[in-house]
Amino acid sequence: MKLPIYLDYHATTPVDPRVLEVMLPYFTQQFGNAASRNHAFGWGAEEAVENARKQVADLIGASAKEVIFTSGATESNNLAIKGVAEMYREKGNHVVTCVTEHKAVIDTCKKLEKQGARVTYLPVQKDGRISLDDLRDAITEKTILITIMTANNEIGVLQPIAEIGAIAKEKGILFHTDAVQAVGKIPVNVNELKVDLLSLSAHKMYGPKGAGALYVRRRNPRVLLSEQISGGGHERGMRSGTLNVPGIVGLGKAAELCRNEMAVEGERLRGLRDYLNEQLHRSLDELYVNGSMEHRLPHNLNVSFAYVEGESLLMGINDVAVSSGSACTSASLEPSYVLKALGAGDDLAHSSIRFGLGRFTTKEEVDYVVQKLTSVVRRLREMSPLYEMVKEGVDLSKMQWVTH
Amino acid sequence: MAYSNKVIDHYENPRNVGSLPKDDVNVGTGLVGAPECGDVMKLQVKVNPETGVIDDAKFKTFGCGSAIASSSLATEWLKGKTVDQALAIKNTDIVAELSLPPVKIHCSVLAEDAIKAAIADYKAKQDKDKGVSATAGHEQPSA
Question: Residue A328: which of B8, B64, B113 has the nearest Cβ?
Answer without folding.
Answer: B64
